[in-house]
Amino acid sequence: MSVFACGRFSLSLERPLLMGILNVTPDSFSDGGSYNRLDAALAHAERLLADGADILDIGGESTRPGAPYVSPEEELQRVLPLLQRLAALQVPLSLDTRRTSVMRAALQAGAVDLINDVSALEDDGALALVAAANVGICLMHKQGNPDTMQQQPDYADVVQEVGGYLARRIELCLENGIARDRLLADPGFGFGKTLQHNLELLRALPQLEALAGAPLLVGMSRKSMLGAITGEPQPDQRLGASVAAALLAAQRGAKVIRVHDVKATHQALQVWQALG
């Protein structure tokens, strides 16, 4: 049985796990401003769990294309009170951050089981910090930075380049004493990729998992790639497309699926799993 060592929890990967998104930001692309009050965030966390979330992913900095700068101090002020309130629940808590200082404060507070890093621990000191902690790690690929990454994405072979980058970051983690069962890899849909790049990666998920050498976490929920396919300009109008993308990812071997719409995705996966 494949198991992911996620902080306080050992999570079976025999079925795809659902990671519920909880952004405590004013400007995230889909739900910015909806849950940046503590009471609203706590209520939404409870709703995500009731709907079938296996992991809660807490983020305090929007990394959408063109997102404005947020200081590490402000990011920490957004996420730490919520993480501390949620720590009493028996649920794995993921911190979506690329800042070493934010990781350190959350780890010192004992309020995080998984570091979900869009920069794959490239920030100074992040690798050593996380290596010494008892947490899971998700390493994501991106081309460029959020303010410029969607201007001119370019690859000779997107599958080989993304898979090769993830393999190198995972190997570096292993060399620094991080056990393989603590690691997830994320191809980074929409992070410096065109629609065609994203579709190529989705088709090649089994190949990407083999290249990376770690289970894949996939996040396509409500993203602009789905809007480009369906013609829906508003993220919250992409429910059907998001559920379809999640199901396709699961069918192609994704072990963790990061979504906004947990209940609908959970139901779709239940129907698929019932087929055996």
UniProtKB/TrEMBL annotation:
Its EC number is 2.5.1.15. It is an enzyme of class 2 (transferase). Catalyzes the condensation of para-aminobenzoate (pABA) with 6-hydroxymethyl-7,8-dihydropterin diphosphate (DHPt-PP) to form 7,8-dihydropteroate (H2Pte), the immediate precursor of folate derivatives. It comes from Vogesella fluminis. Keywords: Folate biosynthesis, Magnesium, Metal-binding, Transferase. Belongs to the DHPS family. Its cofactor is Mg(2+). Pathway: Cofactor biosynthesis; tetrahydrofolate biosynthesis; 7,8-dihydrofolate from 2-amino-4-hydroxy-6-hydroxymethyl-7,8-dihydropteridine diphosphate and 4-aminobenzoate: step 1/2. This is Dihydropteroate synthase. The keyword Cell membrane does not apply. InterPro entries: DHP_synth-like, DHP_synth_dom, Dihydropteroate_synth-like_sf, Pterin-binding_dom. Pfam families: Pterin_bind. Residues 16-270 form the Pterin-binding domain.
